Amino acid sequence: MRPRTRIACLVIAALALPALTPVSVSAESGDPVLMAAGDIACSPSKAAFKGGDGTATKCRQKYTAGLLSGADWVLPLGDEQYEDGDLADFNASYDLSWGAYKANSRPVPGNHEYQTPGGAGYYSYFGSAAGDPNLGYYAWDVGTWHLLALNSNVSMAKGSDQYKWVESELASHSNACVAAYWHEPRFRSAKKNVAKFQPVWDLLYQYGAEFVLNGHAHNYERFAPLTPAGTIDRVRGVREFIAGTGGDSHSDLTTGDSRVEAAQKTTYGVLKLTLHASSYDWEFLPETGTWTDSGTSSCH
Fold first, then answer.
1. Could you tell me if 260 and 222 are in contact, meaning their C-beta atoms sit under 8 angstroms apart?
2. What are phi and psi of 183, to 5 degrees?
3. Taking the domains of the chain in order of start, what are their residue ranges?
4. Distance separating alpha carbons of residues 122 and 14, to the nearest angstrom
5. Within the chain, how many helices (H) and strands (E) appear?
6. Taking the model in full, what pTM does it have?
């Protein structure tokens, strides 16, 4: 049995720097709806930007933003603004689309945000919603779920500040359902398992996390519940969703990975998650076309 006694539910986002006290935010009760995607707003200097209207295949952030109106909370999963997360670009591109939902966004940074030193544009744009920029990770509650945010740009190694904070957070909360979100995935069909994220996955598995949300890969993949090593475990495993479908561009997929239960590389959209007291529903909402993916799962 995992070392936890829990009564509600938990999710985890992405951020981190020196070890300071994380932000804690209370939200509404009930069955909240979250909508998540990463890799969102293309650079306003791109030819495909076209004043924010995009083309048929690129810079589609305006259209994925049109799916967010039913969300209680919006989870931007990193690389919110290409190419380097500059504040002027945030204001000229992201703000025209997903910016309409900034007040109820709980973001995590991507690697492109950190191409501006310290992610300065990202933290300036999102303000307190992004947590303390000198800390990076934060915790918040929504309905019966406890949500945490992690930063894939800084160390998640065992013994690091971020690792110790996650361990403490998981051990000290009594929520029954646990989940997490950060930018770069631990697992991808097109790439070997990313070893630097295994220590935190070890903790999530140990404490019974339900799912992890990621972006970074510009496509959609839903994995079967996995162990920290990446083998399928339908009893205790943690499910990973990759939703790098926010609108910037698409990237290729590798087929034949038996762990992948649903995948596509041609449709932009957002992942809708409805959080119940002891379960959750997921549904991929396409911005155009009919491809979708949906299901439900009980908490461990």
1. yes
2. -80, -65
3. 9-298
4. 13
5. 5, 14
6. 0.91
pLDDT at position 126 over 80? yes
Task: Tell me which H or E stretch contains 199.
Answer: helix 198-206
- 8 A C-beta contact, residue 43 and residue 83: yes
- Neighbouring C-beta atoms of residue 241, cutoff 10 Å: 24
CB 81 within 8 A of CB 42: no
The residues pairing with 239 across neighbouring beta strands, listed in sequence order, are 211
Assigned CATH for 9-298: 3.60.21.10
How far is 211 from 145, CA to CA, in rounded Å?
12
Q: pLDDT digit string (tens) for 148-174?
A: 889 999 999 999 999 999 999 989 988
The per-residue pLDDT for 68 is 98
DSSP classification of residue 237 = P
Task: Give helix 161-172 / helix 198-206 axis angle, nearest 10°.
Answer: 10
3-state SS class at 125: helix
